[in-house]
Amino acid sequence: MKTETIAIHAGNHTDATTGAVIQPIVLSTTFERLEDGSFREGYIYSRSANPNRTALENVLAKLEGGEAAAAFSSGNAAGMTVFQSLKPGTHIIAPDDMYHGLRNQLKQLFEGILEFDFIDIDNTEVLQQHIKPNTGLIWIETPSNPLLKVTDIKKVIAIAKQHGIKVACDNTFATPICQQPLALGADLVMHSTTKYFGGHSDLMGGALITAKNDDWWQKISNVQQMGGAIPSPADCYYLVRSIKTLPYRMRGHVHNAQLLAEFLNTHTKVERVLYPGLPTHPNYSVAKEQMNGFGGVLSFCLKDGPEEANRVINKLKLFTKATSLGGVESLIEHRATMEGPDTKTPFNLLRISVGLEHIDDLIDDLAQAMR
Ligand SMILES: *Cc1c(COP(=O)(O)O)cnc(C)c1O
C-alpha cells in the first residue's frame, strides 16, 4: 500500500463491540484475566502495552518500513532508550551538530557509562579514523538541526557494515514521507513525534522503529516497558489521528519551505540560506538522491549579524518567536541563544519551521520585516 493509505488505515481498527469506526481511547491501566488465567487480547497492564499504543506503533512501523516500533513520552526518551540498550563501555560516534538535547544527554547522563565522539560524520576519512574496536553505534541526523547538513546515509552505512557497527538515524526533520533510512540500510530510526507526526504543537512524543525484530530490539523493548517512559493512551490516540494527514501536511511544508528558501536566497540582506532543496546546498545531489522532499525547516544567516537577526525577528507579525518545529503554524527562532554556551550555531542564524499558512503571506511578512 502507498503511504497515504497506510497513514489512514494502519493505526486504526473499528471497535468490534460497539462498531465505533474510530478506535476508542482505552484509559484502563489494567486488564481482566479469564478463568484459565489468560488475557483476551494479550493486554495485561498499560505500561507494557495498551491498545492505543499498539495502534500507534503499528502505523509508525509501517510508515518507516520496519518490523516493529516503540512509542515513547518524548523524542529524548526514545534517544535515552537507545543509549540505555547498549552495553556499558560501548563507543558511539555521533555528529558534531547532533540535536543539542541528545548531545547534552550523552554528555551529562552517560559520561563514564558510554564513550562518545562528536565528529563530522559525512567526512569519510574522519569517520574511519574514529572507529574503535568497541564502537557499537553510529548515530546520524539528517537533515541536521539547525544547520540542515545532509549526511550521505548509504555512504555511512557502507562503512558501518564493514565494521559490524549498527546505524541509527534521527529522522525527525525528514519524516518517513521525505526519507526512509531503513530502506537505505539503517538498523534503527528515531523520531521526536512532538514535531511533524503530532503536527499541531500540542503533544510530546518519541518513537523508535527497527529494521529487524532482533536481540537488540528486544533489549530496546525491555527498556521501554521496564523504564516506563511511555506515552499516555490519549497522546497515542492524538498521534494516530494526526498521522492520518501527515503525508499531505508534509507536502505543504515542503512546498512552502522551498519557495521561502528561494525568496530568501535572492534577498540582498541574506548571507546564505541553509536548505537541502537549494542547488547551492553543499550536499544538494545527495539530498536529491536519498530524499523524496527536502523537509519543512530552513535556516538563514543575515549579513548584518546578530543585531539584524534580532531586529528582523521582532518585526515579524505572522511568525511566532518560539522553539520547536513541525506544527501547522510557522515558527522562527534565534537558535544559538536557545542551545547554550557550547553551541556551534552562528549568531546571525535564524531557523524557521515553515508552516502551512499561504506562502504569499509568509513571504510578505518576511519581506516587510527585512526591509
Ligand atoms: C525535538 C527534537 C528531538 C527531541 O525530541 P523531544 O520530543 O523534544 O524530546 C530530537 N531530535 C531532533 C532532530 C529534534 O528536533
UniProtKB/TrEMBL annotation:
The keyword Transferase applies. Keywords: Aminotransferase, Pyridoxal phosphate, Transferase. GO terms for biological process: cysteine biosynthetic process via cystathionine; transsulfuration. The modification N6-(pyridoxal phosphate)lysine is found at residue 195. One of its GO terms (molecular function) is cystathionine gamma-lyase activity. GO terms for cellular component: cytoplasm. Its cofactor is pyridoxal 5'-phosphate. Gene3D superfamilies: Aspartate Aminotransferase, domain 1, Type I PLP-dependent aspartate aminotransferase-like (Major domain). Belongs to the trans-sulfuration enzymes family. This is Aminotransferase class V-fold PLP-dependent enzyme. It comes from Mucilaginibacter corticis.
